[in-house]
Design brief:
Layout lengths: L7 E4 L4 E11 L3 E8 L2 E8 L6 H13 L4 H5 L6 E4 L6 E5 L10 H5 L8 H20 L2 E2 L8 E3 L6 E3 L6 E2 L16 H4 L7 H17 L7 H4 L6 H10 L21 H9 L2 H10 L2 H4 L7 H13 L1 E3 L6 E3 L7 E2 L6 E2 L4 E6 L2 E6 L5 E3 H4 L11 E7 L7 E5 L5 E4 L5 E4 L4 E3 L5 E4 L2 E6 L8
Antiparallel strand pairs: 1-2, 1-5, 2-3, 3-4, 4-6, 5-6, 7-10, 8-9, 11-12, 13-14, 15-16, 15-24, 17-18, 18-19, 19-22, 20-21, 20-23, 23-24
Length: 450
């Protein structure tokens, strides 16, 4: 049954009453309502009669008891907060946080130009946060089982992510589930009926979702899909499960994009993806199709998008964001097509490997560049920022914002301590010791000493 405005329901864990204010949405499993509770206004998902099964009730009770993964990664999940029941119905539902739909967008709203198109930095952040949150979920022993664009919302300006509809999360390879996924995101072996949902099938769905985020297209929608006159269940099973072929497979041209204007945007957006991202997608949709153990992991996606974000530079002519070249060669801006001079880089050597940060004006050195996030530092603490010289045009330096002195060795071998608030010139071969990490500025020269 649908819920009338004013209906009073019982929240089992808290023992409180919630009151229905209005219906705000509907999906295949149930309806979503805005409700008033002692904690303020929240959202309620109310299951349809055929979905309100004992297994689903057990699953929701389990999720309410266990809670989301810890830390920032867990906070992105709109997790079930309490099981909600009614005295007059066998149906039930669960409480969850209310989403600010003015701030957060769905992919479909971006494609329809109802919400802003995320820039490259926001795309990197969206992709990183998705990988980071699903990694935390999988490390907790759970699988999501229904990763899709329908369960993703994001802030187009900042890239902050929310993951919705978490009621199908379960213990990996153990929990029973009524939902096996959305077919276009399901792993081929899952469509063929060879296995149950798992973290490995989640990895395929995550790769498909990331491809949609970047390319606005499905990785298997090429000539094979184009030739079907009836896009029904058998056709989808063939393209997604029985004989999937990546549209940009470097070895197999059988499913290239057709020469149709409706497919042209995918080719253009693919061309804008940096080589490292294209290589990762190619692995995900070639080796990963037949070898689940070779799928790209959440950690690999996470590291890639952090690296890509660190390589971003702004065009000095039109301010468009561009990915810098690893070989420090001049770039051609994708937007205005004018040349972007190569920026210097900061190579940061730390335990576990090194990272490289492009030193364009405004670039920030964060604590995640120096050390691995821990319980007291999530990696977002700003340690330094590239700033212009106050009087010399074109000159810049990296200002110490760490609260500690930096130890600096200049190219001529002289050494100095740089206190908080002061800047180090961006001269090549200058070495800065920051909180135990060795950071070296590499050419090209970026102006005179500030």
């Amino acid at each position: 049954m649908s819920l009338a405005v004013g209906t009073r329901l019982h929240a089992e864990l808290s023992g409180t009453t919630v009151t229905v204010i209005q219906k705000i949405g509907e999906g295949t499993q149930g309806e979503v309502y805005l409700v008033e509770s002692p904690q303020g206004r929240q959202a309620l998902k109310w299951y349809k009669p055929e979905q309100a099964t004992p297994d689903q009730r057990t699953a929701i009770s389990y999720l309410v008891r266990t809670g989301p993964p810890f830390g920032a990664a867990g906070k992105r999940f709109i997790w079930p907060l309490d099981l909600v029941t009614a005295d007059t119905a066998k149906q039930f539902g669960y409480l969850m946080a209310k989403i600010d739909t003015q701030k957060y967008a769905e992919l479909g709203e971006v494609w329809a130009h109802l919400k802003p198109v995320p820039g490259l930095r926001a795309l990197c952040e969206i992709s990183y946060e998705l990988a980071n949150s699903y990694r935390a979920l999988h490390l907790s022993g759970h699988c999501y089982r229904d990763i899709s664009a329908g369960n993703l919302m994001f802030d187009p300006m900042t890239g902050d992510v929310l993951i919705c509809d978490n009621d199908n999360v379960g213990v990996n390879r153990q929990s029973r589930c009524q939902v096996w996924g959305t077919m276009e995101y399901m792993a081929p072996e899952l469509i063929r009926g060879e296995c149950d949902p798992s973290t490995e099938t989640d990895l395929h769905a995550l790769a498909v979702l990331l491809f949609y985020v970047w390319v606005w297209h499905h990785p298997f929608h090429g000539e094979m899909e184009y030739r079907y006159h009836c896009w029904d269940i058998p056709a989808k099973k063939q393209v997604y499960g029985i004989s999937p072929v990546f549209i940009f497979d470097p070895e197999n041209p059988a499913n290239r994009l057709p020469a149709d204007p409706d497919y042209a945007l995918a080719g253009k957006r693919w061309a804008l993806c940096p080589p490292a991202l294209r290589d990762m997608f190619a692995r995900a949709f070639t080796e990963g199709l037949s070898q689940p153990a070779r799928r790209v992991t959440e950690g690999e996606w996470q590291n890639l998008f952090l690296s890509l974000k660190d390589s971003l530079v702004s065009c000095p002519h039109c301010r468009a964001e561009n990915f810098s070249d690893a070989d420090s060669r001049p770039l051609s801006c994708w937007h205005c097509h004018r040349e972007i001079p190569p920026a210097p880089t900061l190579v940061i050597r730390r335990p576990g490997g090194s990272v490289t940060l492009s030193l364009f004006l405004g670039a920030q050195l964060l604590s995640r560049h120096i050390l691995h996030p821990n319980g007291t530092d999530d990696g977002s603490r700003v340690i330094g920022r590239v700033v212009p010289h106050p009087t010399i045009p074109g000159a810049a330096g990296i200002r110490n914002l760490s609260g500690q002195n930096w130890s600096v060795t200049f190219p001529d071998g002289t050494m100095a301590d740089v206190p908080p608030g002061r800047a180090v010139p961006l001269n090549p071969e200058t070495t800065i010791t920051v909180e135990g990490a060795c950071c070296t500025i590499q050419s090209p020269v970026f102006g005179a000493e500030p």
